[in-house]
Amino acid sequence: MIDTAELHRRIAECADEFVAELFGERVRPAGAGQWWVGARGSRAISVRDGKLVFFDHEAGTGGDAIELWQRERDCDNGEALRASAAWAGLSTDAPAPRLAPPRPRLARPPAPIPDMPRDAADAWTEGREYLSGNAAARREIAEWRGWPVEYVATLAGAGVIAAPKYFHERTRVAFPTCEPVTFPTGEGESPENAHCDRARFVGWHARLKDSNGEKRGWRFVPREDGNRAHPGVRPTPLVLARAGVFGQLWDKKLIVICEGEFDAATLPLALGWFDPTLRLLRIPPGVGIVGIVGAGGGQRVFLDAYRPFWPRNVAAIVLRDADKAGDRWKEPGGFLDVLRERCSRVVSAHFGTGSDGKRRDVNDAWRDGTLTRGVFDALLLAKMNRTLRDAEIAISLRDTPPPSE
After folding, report:
1. 16, 25, 14, 19: which is closest to 310 by C-alpha?
2. I want to staple 216 with a disulfide (CB 3.0 to 4.6 A). Which of 208, 264, 325, 386 is the partner?
3. For 224-230, what is the mean pLDDT?
4. Residues 122, 83 within the same domain
């Protein structure tokens, strides 16, 4: 039996941690022992008489901490009681608390308009039109990344890549920068699109053209310039799902994490999820592909941004680079350890080094034939084999399984 009085006492003593567990960055402090959730504080949470309580101003209902857990985790009262007791250390017969996706409660969503400065949005739109209409630019990217030209055209048409101008100079390629936001279906939309994914674009990440043998690297737009009215974007990852929809993971069963946007964009091609006849990406509905922007701060931004939207009982396959930055993901308390806390299963793999001694990533492995559907199927089997403990797999040409039919 769970002592509910003791449970409420412990939750009230650790109210900050309890509220953060449920809402992550969506919660805002509103004074001593008080919090608000929602852009306008639609949910008020406070500690009163030694007990955490809440009130939802939109729904006109409220309750105690157990009812708040039940509501935010979308479970029944018994499961909420056991899970919150496990969180408070009063019970060991319940699973560890899980981060469930928040349920959108907007009656009618706002239009999915890009949430970035107008000049950046206009540049991105012009860059999409330029790449979609310029065969020479598409061929250049295809030769550079080892992609078929029709695949480049598909990515451009889906808005996965563009070639906008950066200070009046045409970039080589750019990826959209999005924040994870989920809305319900709008008026007149099909019920099949319930909880549909609508990206909130905040900027873009562009690779500049090299000049005189110098690699000029990447730039974020809008860039950080110290002006609070025009802040720089944070390096949220490229997230692809279904037909190329951006930004959402909350309903996924498997996430495949790559160290780089080009790697994430290569994966649907390598795994046969590209239909060249119809020029469509056919990523399975339960799969999300994540392209981390850099192995350092990018992975921390990813974990912070997606914490409130983390999917239930999700497994992860991590395809990291075979370099020092990728090796840091394995360090105690590092990226892989955090993923193991949030995922039911984590399998990490890398592709070693090539004959030239250089580290190889997903795009390299695709171009030299190492990354095949057979390799991915082997990783899926490793994910399902729970006798293995958080498998770390080195894939080389010598041990590549045959492609699946």
Report:
1. 25
2. 208
3. 51
4. no
